[in-house]
Design a protein that fits this description.
With about 160 residues, the chain is α/β, with parallel strands linked by helices. It has four helices and eight strands; from the N terminus they run βαβαββαββββα. The chain has one domain: Rossmann fold (3-Layer(aba) Sandwich), CATH 3.40.50.300. The protein is globular, with a radius of gyration of 18 Å. It comes from Niveibacterium microcysteis.
Length: about 160
């Protein structure tokens, strides 16, 4: 599977961009999956539901299955946070896995940057950033992509991972 990532500060537009890219990539006949890393605690379950109760009782994994989808929840408890490679190994085979986050993991990434947000650029701290998508032209040496042109960004990604 080919893997390509996105890095940027919270609120920079990573999720919105990825949401716009997926249909474009799928229209080219590609099967696409996504891994999103979060630094915050999260829970897809709800208190009071059977699955929540099973986890609270101590189950290591709870798998919910239905006619439209299935989801596996794994409690880390005292285990270390899984690496990106650990996560990739759990996915079904697809053509392209998009990754949001995992800034330090050595995969090619586009930095999403909006100067108006007031955050510094990241590319000088993370050598795997291969391009910058911004809503404003920047004075940088890396390729610059128009954040408002997901078609251009999709083609850049496809060429970068030899799927074009």
């Amino acid at each position: 599977m080919k893997v390509f990532g996105f890095a940027g500060y919270s609120g920079s537009g990573k999720t919105t961009l990825i949401e716009r890219l997926i249909p474009l990539l799928r229209a080219r006949g590609l099967r696409v999956s996504l891994i999103k890393h979060t630094h915050h605690g999260f829970d897809i379950d709800k208190p009071g539901k059977d699955s929540f109760r099973f986890r609270e009782a101590g189950a290591t994994e709870v798998l919910l299955a239905g006619g439209q989808r299935w989801a596996l929840m794994h409690e880390l408890r005292d285990e270390p946070e899984p690496t990106l490679d650990d996560q990739l190994a759990r996915l079904a085979a697809v053509d392209l896995v998009l990754v949001e986050g995992f800034r330090t993991t050595p995969i090619p990434k586009i930095e999403i940057h909006r100067p108006a947000a007031g955050h510094p650029l990241l590319h000088d701290k993370f050598p795997n950033i291969v391009a910058i998508a911004s809503d404003t032209p920047l004075d940088v040496q890396l390729p610059q992509l128009d954040l408002n042109d997901p078609g251009q960004i999709a083609m850049f990604i496809l060429k970068s991972v030899d799927l074009a």
